[in-house]
Structure formats: structure tokens, C-alpha cells
Design brief:
mainly alpha
């Protein structure tokens, strides 16, 4: 990277010598080959210097960079541009990432509308920067805007996303001090954002800091009346699960129990049974709980179970009562035909001439039974449900609810082979199955 004047007693040394070295470095970074291989041979050095124009041509240097690189590598220091001119060249000035880095320092001077547009631009390129640039160049001006409510909705998601890529030490030293006031007080859309990122924030905190910063956020989330926050209840229990997975100290477990109790009371039996109890039950075996803490833990779990039982048991009892009524109604279905009281000739399923509802002619004869036995319900139904038209008439006729229920109840025996016959009324069957 040594400029030629460093090898001779030529012009006085100046920053122009650094420009030559910078040009050699730019070439190597851009095109993955050294411009001046270090051969420790002065004649070879000058031969390579003479070949620089050809070397640039063979490397297919970007046209917007070529003229600047050619001047930076000039053997005459006076022909080399100064640093400020290089930065203003199209190759650098048109680069969106460099534009962002150059403008970040001016962010505080922008109005809120300009800030919003600039933050949107940063969100498109930040992932191209390494961790050092993010911490020292990108995050500081963004963090300064986190408390600005006018742009908080745009800058906070970006800060939280970048924070997920930070090391724990960088996060604790750089980002957490700005987020701490928000974790304890923010509401609305920002509260929702913090809740959605709570697990990643917890993962980036030392164990001893999780209870201090994350559990209060979850507690506030449980008490929130915002339906969007309430819709994130799974995030609350998932985050709690990650917290207690790494920290089973009694204070953390008891605090998690308190949060879960609020979740259980606010979000009802389904959330309690599906999310809260599966999270808490294994924690009863945590080895460091005292007898008093265990008793409190077990008692609150029992209270949650009781709330689930109080909500669930009446519904089950009501469903059983409806089922018994339906069965009783089906048992008296044969009497609905009047007269003969059966399902065949003279009953509800007979032809019109017999006062029935199915078919246009007399019904098929009932099957014979040994010893003069009474035909079963299945036999009576099978004797009249012999075609899709019969089945259709049954499902559109008035006053045949019991018969429809019987047909549903005995469908496997009625149609052990003719699945297509039963499928012809699939929608009606589904509707009547709900009634049954």
C-alpha cells in the first residue's frame, strides 16, 4: 500500500500519500486481489506501478469509481484528489448505506415527518451493517428518538428488531437503559410491541434482571383493557415459560404464579386449562420452594382448577340433559305415525294413500320376522328408505324430527353398503347431527 514518493527523495510527504494507500486498499477490498503484491523488489514495484491502468481495465472497475481510483493511484501526488472530493464522488454519494450513516448524525435536526421517512430508509438497510457500526453509529440516534411519541411507532419496532441481534452485554449497556422506562409505563401500540418482543428481551437479559424488567410488563399486560394486548395472551404465557425455564428461583416462581393468576382470572377457563395450568403444574416440583411457598403455589393452582370446574361443569350437565331428552323423544318416534303406529304402511313413512309422507305409491312390504316378532326400528326404516328420493322426503317433511334422529342413530345399520345413498344428504345429515 506504499505510495511511490515514500521510496524516493521526491516531493514532501503529505496526506496525498495516504490517498494512494487508500486507493490500493479500495481496489483490494472491491476486487479481492492486491494491487501491489509485496515482493520487496523495487524494480518489480515500479513495473507494477506502470501496469496500474491495465490492472484497472482487467478488473472491470465500476465506471463511477474508475476515474477516482485512477486519480488516487496516480504516481504524481498532485494529481490525487483530496478526501472530501472522494466522499462526494457518485460512487460513494449514491450508496444508500453510506447515505444513511452520513445522515444519522443529523437526525435530531429533522422535523418529525422527515424523521419518519428517514427511519423507514434505515429499516431497509440496517441488516447490512456489522455489530460495531450498529452499536456506535446506528442505534444511538435511533434510541434518542424512542421517547418521541410522534415517531415512536416507527422507531421502536426497528430498535427492538436490531436489539435481537445484539450481544447480551451490548444490549444491557446500550439499549436496555432506554427501554426500561417504557417497560414500566408505555401503553397502546408500543405496549403491544414490547409484549411481542418480551421473549427476545428476556433472552438478552441476565437471569437476575428478568424479574425486574419483564415480569412487570407481563403483569401490566394482564390488566390491560386493550383487546389487542388481550389477544396476545399466548405471548404472555410463552414468555413466562421461557423465564422460568432458565430461572427457577423462588422469587421468580412466585412472581410468575401471580402473573398467571391474573391471566387466569382475566382470560377465563379455556386459557387457564390450555396455557396456565400446563405451565404452572410442573413448577410444583421446583426444589428450592419452601413449605409455605409450596402451600401457596398449590392452593392457587387449586383455585384455578375450581374456576375451570365452575365454568365447565354446568355446560357438560346441560349437554347431557339435552342428550337424554333427545333419546326419550326418539324412543316415542314410532307413535308419531298415528293409527297403525309404525313406520311402514299406515305410518309416517308410508305412501300418500296410506296417510304417510314418503313415496307416491304404497310402501314396500315390511320384512317377515320369526315367531311373529315386531319389526325393529332399523327394519322399519330400511323398508321405506330404499332410494335417495325416500331419504330426501324424510329430511324435508314436517313433523319427522324423531324419525330423522332415528335415521341418524341407525345409519350404519341402514346403509352398510350404500354409502352413496347416505352421502346424497350429507349437508342435511350434518345439520340434524347437530340437533341430535
Amino acid at each position: 500500500y506504499m505510495a511511490p514518493e515514500l521510496l524516493t527523495a521526491g516531493p514532501p510527504l503529505s496526506t496525498h500519500s495516504d490517498i494512494f494507500s487508500y486507493g490500493a486498499l479500495v481496489f483490494e477490498v472491491m476486487y479481492q486481489q492486491p494491487l501491489l503484491p509485496a515482493v520487496h523488489d523495487l524494480s518489480k514495484y515500479y513495473e507494477t506501478m506502470a501496469e496500474i491502468p491495465n490492472t484497472l481495465a482487467r478488473a472491470s472497475v465500476d465506471p463511477s469509481l474508475y476515474q477516482w481510483l485512477f486519480r488516487m493511484l496516480s504516481q504524481d501526488p498532485a494529481n490525487r484528489p483530496d478526501a472530501s472530493s472522494i466522499i462526494l464522488s457518485p460512487f460513494f454519494s449514491a450508496d444508500p448505506e453510506l447515505q444513511v450513516l452520513s445522515s444519522l448524525g443529523e437526525l435530531l435536526r429533522y422535523d418529525n415527518l422527515q424523521k419518519a421517512g428517514f427511519i423507514r430508509q434505515v429499516s431497509q438497510v440496517w441488516h447490512n451493517f456489522d455489530a460495531r457500526v450498529l452499536r456506535y453509529k446506528v442505534l444511538p440516534p435511533l434510541l434518542a428518538e424512542v421517547r418521541n411519541e410522534a415517531v415512536q411507532g416507527m422507531v421502536l419496532p426497528l430498535v427492538l428488531t436490531i436489539a435481537e441481534k445484539q450481544t447480551q452485554s451490548d444490549f444491557v449497556q446500550c439499549t436496555l437503559p432506554v427501554l426500561t422506562p417504557l417497560l414500566g409505563s408505555v401503553c397502546g401500540e408500543s405496549h403491544l410491541l414490547l409484549l411481542r418482543h418480551a421473549a427476545s428481551i428476556a433472552n438478552n437479559l441476565p437471569i437476575e434482571m428478568v424479574e425486574q424488567h419483564i415480569l412487570p410488563l407481563l403483569t401490566r399486560s394482564c390488566d390491560s383493557n386493550d383487546p389487542r394486548v388481550q389477544g396476545e395472551v399466548e405471548k404472555i404465557t410463552d414468555t413466562l415459560g421461557k423465564v422460568v425455564a432458565v430461572d427457577k428461583s423462588p422469587p421468580t416462581l412466585m412472581c410468575a404464579l401471580g402473573v398467571c393468576d391474573i391471566v387466569s382470572k382475566n382470560f377465563g377457563p379455556e386459557v387457564t386449562a390450555g396455557h396456565v395450568l400446563p405451565l404452572l403444574a410442573p413448577l410444583l416440583m421446583a426444589p428450592r420452594l419452601s413449605s409455605k411457598q409450596f402451600t401457596t403455589f398449590a392452593g392457587m393452582l387449586k383455585d384455578m382448577l375450581d374456576r375451570v370446574q365452575e365454568a365447565r361443569l354446568p355446560a357438560l350437565q346441560e349437554a347431557e340433559a339435552v342428550k337424554h331428552v333427545t333419546q326419550d323423544e326418539g324412543a316415542t318416534g314410532g307413535a308419531e305415525g298415528g293409527g297403525g303406529g309404525g313406520l311402514g304402511q299406515g305410518g309416517l313413512l308410508g305412501g300418500p294413500a296410506d296417510g304417510g309422507l314418503l313415496g307416491s305409491g304404497p310402501p314396500p312390504p315390511a320384512p317377515q320376522h320369526a315367531a311373529g316378532g315386531t319389526p325393529s326400528m332399523v327394519d322399519q326404516l330400511a323398508s321405506v328408505l330404499s332410494s335417495p328420493e325416500d331419504l330426501e322426503n324424510l329430511f324435508v317433511a314436517d313433523g319427522c324430527q324423531s324419525l330423522r334422529l332415528e335415521a341418524l342413530r341407525h345409519r350404519r345399520q341402514l346403509f352398510p353398503v350404500s354409502a352413496s345413498l347416505w352421502a346424497a344428504q350429507a349437508e342435511e345429515l350434518a345439520a340434524w347431527q347437530a340437533v341430535a
